[in-house]
Design brief:
single chain, about 200 residues, alpha/beta, Helicase, Ruva Protein, domain 3, Dna Topoisomerase Vi A Subunit, Chain: A, domain 2, elongated
């Protein structure tokens, strides 16, 4: 493989990252080539280590390198679960620092167009947690888009007969936006003015 082919392959790999176009991929590739061999090896090693060591928390489904994530391991949590679509949504909500409960990651939302139903996301373990952890409230914090709303409604209908309060983040987060891109102040206000479903 000559140098140009190796460069094309590197650019192609970077362009597979979300939000990275060809120009940004080229910048990343050229930057990497200016680094020392040890820095590049450290970068590659960090990626391999992350892939090998990070997995889902066996309680909430968030990313962790232990059996149970740090949030689930905290003592004296409030009996509240905040349900989110993906692990990156937990990171967004953690910026707020106002929430004293725990999280539950669905790893997707109900989306008939992609043949994703309730059995294809992490709902069954949510029901187990509600019974085992004596949860009093579930905040559904899926994205405010059609799929997120459908998932929130499904969860609300499933949980209400159990006597659990089900609430939704207050509007203020723009419809169609992603939680990970929402600023901490907006998230804080949305959490504090959530409404019961």
């Amino acid at each position: 493989m000559n140098q140009i082919d190796a460069m094309d392959r590197l650019i192609n790999e970077f362009s597979r990252l979300p939000g990275v176009g060809n120009k940004t991929a080229q910048r990343y590739a050229y930057f990497l080539l200016t680094q020392s061999e040890q820095e590049v090896k450290d970068f590659a090693s960090a990626m391999v280590d992350a892939k090998e060591q990070i997995h889902y928390c066996k309680i909430c489904g968030n990313f962790t390198d232990k059996d149970i994530c740090s949030t689930c391991a905290k003592p004296n949590k409030q009996p509240i679960i905040c349900v989110v679509k993906e692990p990156k949504d937990v990171s967004a909500l953690e910026k707020v620092r106002d929430f004293g409960g725990s999280y539950h990651v669905l790893h997707g939302v109900i989306n008939p167009l992609e043949n994703k139903g309730p059995n294809d996301i992490n709902i069954r373990s949510l029901l187990n947690r509600i019974n085992n952890e004596q949860i009093k409230e579930v905040i559904v914090a899926t994205n405010p888009d059609v799929e997120g709303e459908a998932t929130a409604l499904y969860i609300a209908n499933l949980l209400k007969p159990l006597g659990v309060k089900v609430s939704r983040l207050a509007q203020g987060i723009a419809m169609g936006s992603e939680l990970e891109y929402t600023d901490a102040l907006t998230l804080s206000k949305a959490l504090s003015s959530r409404t019961e479903m």
